[in-house]
Amino acid sequence: MCGIFGYVGSHADAAGIVLRGLKKLEYRGYDSWGVAVAQDAHVVLEKSIGKIGDAAPNLPPSTIGIGHTRWATHGGVTQPNAHPHLDCTGHLALIHNGIVSNYRDLRDPLARAGHRFQSETDTEVVAHLLEEYLTRTPAGPEQLVTATIAAFRKLHGLNAIAVLDVSTGQMAAAKSGSPLVVGWSGHGHMLASDYSALLEHTRRVTFVDDGQAVLVSRDTSRLFDVDTGRELTPEITEVEWDVAATELGGYPDYMTKEIHEQPAMLRRLAEQWGDHARRLAQALREARDVFVIGCGTASHAALAAQYLLARIAGRRVNVATGSEFAYLRDFIGEGSLVLALSQSGETIDIIDAARAARQRGARIAALVNVEGSTLWRLADVAVPLGAGPERCVLATKSFTAKLAILMMTAYELTGRVEAGAALVRDAADEIARLLTDDRRDLIRRVADEIYRREHLFAIGRGPSYPLALEAALKIKEVSYVHAEGFAGGELKHGVIALIEPGTPCVVLAPRDETHDDIMAGAMEVKARGALLIGVSPEAHEAFDYWIPVADLGPATAILNAVPAQLLGYYLALLRGHDPDKPRNLAKSVTVK
Ligand code: AGP
Q: How far is the CA of 343 from the centre of ligand 1 (A)?
């Protein structure tokens, strides 16, 4: 949550460079933003509530700047609470990602010592704490990073902080928990929460590990150990993605772009991910027991994996939501494999779960989209998701990529990975047709009919149950319609009481052993006046709207994710919402 960006170099447009970096990070939080640059040994600051949009900060030329895009945790969404925060001297500008859980204990003695606070945030306390330590740290080239380390050691919680010091023209940062990378370019050095914001300048990055600090100046970046203060040798990695992959590329928004990237992505996975599926299958073979974990959309992929592995490979796996996994840890030990699913690789509940499992002797396999992320570096077996940059807060292509790779892995467990790849190809072709033929307009018409409704249900049985959960999540996340997904058989155990005349109900009815039972459930809600939106290879007189989809066997799950992605998108537009940055959300959840 929150996006951090900093630049020091030879270009005098630090404010512009920082703002462009923040725009690339805005999916991490968009409650407010702020940029600070140095001018004549003073910090000049601009901060504002809301999304950056087309804002052009009125800041002076400078070769050093720092900026932040916020997801509010402590203190309301106000201009004073926006970052960066200054110290009393006005020489330090500090930004932060995380939660300083002991900020009150730190603030009170600072206030008694005369420090004046302008905001309600935990972050501003750090600026004044650093101010204190700077006065106690001998001057010298490492004064700023030494004081930053001293202040950082006092903070409790998962945090990344970065500070700009106008008196030295340097930046320093430290992290534990929240992500931070350093960018190395020919015209300067940068700090960012993730490397997609650096690609305009460089693909050479250093992933800062927990308990490390950096000192960044025009000529170089230096890495230090927070515990010992010892200098370390930074490891520079050349990342895969290029800046074009992070651009809109002519699409109206990232949600549309990423939905339309699915066919090509799935074809690429079918062609090139066989070896990755073999590695994952081998890890499953070697495991005594397996837990598949994820949060949000990734938890739905984990549940889908349970059905895919059971039906295709006869392999039983346990599934847990990342934030609940800690309470099941007693079952984890030597011989256990935890397969962690995550687009960002930074979801704190998943990282904590993986760390706790490792401490109990389990092996960690991870299916991650952001290579080099914390989960990627933590895993024993790291498998790339291969979805490319995903900027829309809603996970779309990263979900279908997970299902495709997990299905290929299940087929590999029976020695038939090619059969799995062939089905992924079929899903790619059918999704390509769905995105271009009249079914897309049909889904838009469905949205036209129901967009004023405040409640919606999605039902499915067996392998379609996780897809019903995912359909509801997509629709509620982006359109704010209160959508709920259910196992079709659960309707009569309470939920059906919520059905009123006209209540929309998405029915996932593939041609498999669940078909007749799910249609029986659909008829029961129809009898209470529900408006049925059938997603099925077969028409049915009960459907008010029938979205015909091919029967692709186990790959139907991949295909059936897309109609709800589109329905959610059109509902969002009709209800006047930003499909890329839904309210109150952020792309990767790095705080508890
Ligand atoms: C999905 O649309 C949401 N963005 C959210 O539920 C997301 O799936 C969840 O936060 C997990 O993120 P991760 O895959 O990056 O770990």
A: 7
